[in-house]
Write a structure and sequence with these properties.
two-stranded antiparallel ribbon; receptor; transmembrane; single chain; 150 residues; mainly alpha
Length: 150
């Protein structure tokens, strides 16, 4: 949208990538930031939650062990939450008053978000978790048998 004059980007404190320009606190910035926050955080969180709930229902139908649907959502909020808070803070206050070191944390956590999903899936799945445990320790995990006759 910055191509059509709505919102602006600038270098982040590390100078490696672009991010929202926090030095602007005008109406244009606020009107750009709120839909961006909605589209990039709320829709993403709803998608993650509904997808993992669908997976959990599928596991339940097949008699598989329980699947934790809250962990991926918590990881998403852990990674993207600071970025959203910093952006929303910039709508009411001058974000350049925040230390550049603190402003660096938000984009770094946001960039690590895709790294968490494979680990969360692997550690949440008994087959993968057992394989990881066996690889690291050489021991086999005894998985309790589930009565599928119910």
């Amino acid at each position: 949208m910055p191509l059509i004059g709505w919102g602006e980007y600038d270098y982040e404190p590390l100078r490696t990538c672009c991010t929202l320009d926090y030095s602007k606190g005008d109406r244009n910035y606020v009107s750009y930031l709120l839909p961006m926050a909605f589209c990039n955080l709320v829709i993403q969180a709803v998608t993650v939650l509904s997808s993992y709930r669908s997976i959990a229902r599928k596991f339940k139908k097949t008699g598989q062990p329980k699947f934790n649907t809250g962990t991926p959502l918590k990881a998403l909020l852990f990674c993207w939450g600071p970025y959203a808070v910093l952006s929303l803070y910039a709508t009411v206050e001058d974000a350049t008053l925040v230390s550049p070191k603190v402003r660096m944390i938000a984009p770094i956590l946001a960039k690590t978000s895709p790294l968490f999903n494979p680990f969360l899936y692997a550690l949440g799945n008994e087959n993968y978790r057992g394989g990881i445990w066996r690889f690291l320790t050489g021991q086999k995990i005894d998985v309790p048998q589930i009565d599928k006759s119910k």
